[in-house]
Amino acid sequence: MFLPAFVRDCRTATRLIERRADAALAPGERLRLWAHLHLCVYCRRYQVQSQLLSRLAPGLAAGPPPVSAELRARWKARIAAASGEVE
Amino acid sequence: MTASPPALLDPPQWPDRYGPELYHYAYRRVHNADAAAELVQEAFLSALAARASFRGEASERSWLFVILKRKLVDFYRQQARQPLAAAPEADPEEEAPGPLFGPDGHWLPAHAPQPWPAADAALEQQELQQILAACQRRLPPRQQLVFARRFVEEISTEEVCQELALSAANFWVLVHRAKLSLRRCLERHWLGTPPPTSAA
């Protein structure tokens, strides 16, 4: 095999893709990733799909379920019980 | 310094006065209703036990928040200690989220990303989001937490690392694994059945 290892190394490439989404890579990393993506259709897909995941994720920010009366009552009961122990 | 009278604190009123706010705060940080309820309860009980130390320098409310934040730190530490059956995460150098890649790091044929149809229609986006939500719930706890904080709540990497007491290396391992699993999960459940072979 005459090709450098990074040509096959999708594990590293996908890791670099994630890091690059956050901050600039070191020049060597950038070059290796560029070359890898040039040659690897799977990692090009991965990159697009990972970006889609990032864009979809904020939509998952559902508010918390409302605090039910039962939950409040449970908290109060625990506080009352513990207050008894403290005093 | 003399202690302010503990009368400043009104524990029986805490659940009504601060419960929802504390719960909301905790929920956004743990993304789990039961865990959030439990954390708020623990915060109340710790506050109660420590009420002699309340000096009235801060409001009752911010004092409770300080205690809740401590509980969250404990929670995160606990999560970090949890052995993970699904994927060994103890060693950040050990980069093997299941057998997605072969020994040379190349995608195994069964796991290589397939082309996805364009999902620009609003309906499809919504459907995708639902699948993504289900996939997220299936991640191991720490990956779920990191993904939720960084991508759902959009907190900066630095803040997430600090909050969850993670090294940058560990953070990236968790993000990488979470993304790999989510991508795979979405592909399986969105596209369904055997992946097409034609390029998009």
Automatic annotation (TrEMBL), chain A:
<protein>
    <recommendedName>
        <fullName>Zinc-finger domain-containing protein</fullName>
    </recommendedName>
</protein>
UniProtKB/TrEMBL annotation, chain B:
<dbReference type="InterPro" id="IPR039425">
    <property type="entry name" value="RNA_pol_sigma-70-like"/>
</dbReference>
<dbReference type="InterPro" id="IPR013249">
    <property type="entry name" value="RNA_pol_sigma70_r4_t2"/>
</dbReference>
<feature type="domain" description="RNA polymerase sigma-70 region 2">
    <location>
        <begin position="17"/>
        <end position="81"/>
    </location>
</feature>
<feature type="region of interest" description="Disordered">
    <location>
        <begin position="84"/>
        <end position="104"/>
    </location>
</feature>
<keyword id="KW-0804">Transcription</keyword>
<dbReference type="InterPro" id="IPR014284">
    <property type="entry name" value="RNA_pol_sigma-70_dom"/>
</dbReference>
<dbReference type="InterPro" id="IPR013324">
    <property type="entry name" value="RNA_pol_sigma_r3/r4-like"/>
</dbReference>
<keyword id="KW-0805">Transcription regulation</keyword>
<dbReference type="Pfam" id="PF08281">
    <property type="entry name" value="Sigma70_r4_2"/>
</dbReference>
<keyword id="KW-0731">Sigma factor</keyword>
<protein>
    <submittedName>
        <fullName>Sigma-70 family RNA polymerase sigma factor</fullName>
    </submittedName>
</protein>
<comment type="similarity">
    <text>Belongs to the sigma-70 factor family. ECF subfamily.</text>
</comment>
<dbReference type="InterPro" id="IPR036388">
    <property type="entry name" value="WH-like_DNA-bd_sf"/>
</dbReference>
<feature type="domain" description="RNA polymerase sigma factor 70 region 4 type 2">
    <location>
        <begin position="131"/>
        <end position="181"/>
    </location>
</feature>
<dbReference type="Pfam" id="PF04542">
    <property type="entry name" value="Sigma70_r2"/>
</dbReference>
<keyword id="KW-0238">DNA-binding</keyword>
<dbReference type="InterPro" id="IPR013325">
    <property type="entry name" value="RNA_pol_sigma_r2"/>
</dbReference>
<dbReference type="InterPro" id="IPR007627">
    <property type="entry name" value="RNA_pol_sigma70_r2"/>
</dbReference>
